[in-house]
Amino acid sequence: MPLTPTVRLKFLSLYMREARERAGVEPKEVAKLLGRDTTRVTKMEKGREGLTPGDAKMLLDHYGVHTEAEKAEIVELARTRSQRGRWAGHRATVPMELRPYYDFELDSSGLRLYGTELVPGVLQTMSYMRALLVARNRVDRDKIDDVITMRLERQQILFRDQPTDAAFVLSESCVRRVFGGNAVMHEQMLHLANLAQRPNIRIQVLPFDAPGGASTFGFTMLRIPAPTSAPPLEMAYVENLHDADYLDGDKEVADYANLWANLTANALGVEESRRFVLGVAQSYA
């Protein structure tokens, strides 16, 4: 699977930061070598700013990375460039702040998502999408069809030749919150039940009366295969109305993994959840 520019840039930033830390070099020294200020070095090491192949090679030499194979792999990642037209047409409807997440999701091999109020986008039917977009009134009416086309395209991560292994814990609110009326919700619930039968998709429902309670915020955890022999990237993604955080620190990822473990333990099992969803579907019939 070819990596998107966003993901290539992220791995470049991780490898460059790890090499600098192993060498015991301070960011201010890197800034001096590059002729940048330390703020820009921080952005580079967080995957928010690029690095030319020449600068990458110079820094790796300075860090004492002598393994030519490792150096070549990292320098090749520095050739990341934005692809012209990637966000044109219906893809232009994706807000700028969400585009990095869409790229991370596209390159993921594993996804774990906890939803609190809405059926997650990758599990939505076209009718549910349309009803949700109209209800939330955040998209111009003449753009709704383009948004739906993009969202349906995004769902292909679940159906491609090597699909993402996806697990979902849905608060009961996700299946009780009505958008578009009973017919739309009936179709959406049957869609969830059908998806739950696919080998790469696991859906659990966290009932209102779950003994362990629920998290008050949703989140997504992603696993992205490395372009080198290094371990995959594990990250947590959390968003709010105006911002989003991409968390890849060991402690942060471990904290979200523990939260995920608690949610899956308190939720109904996979088969029990499917029966629950079918029961909810019947209530909308």
UniProtKB/TrEMBL annotation:
SMART domains on file: HTH_XRE
Domain annotation HTH cro/C1-type: ranges: 16-71
GO MF terms, alphabetically ordered: DNA binding
Annotated InterPro entries: Cro/C1-type_HTH, DUF5753, Lambda_DNA-bd_dom_sf
Name this protein carries in UniProt: Helix-turn-helix protein
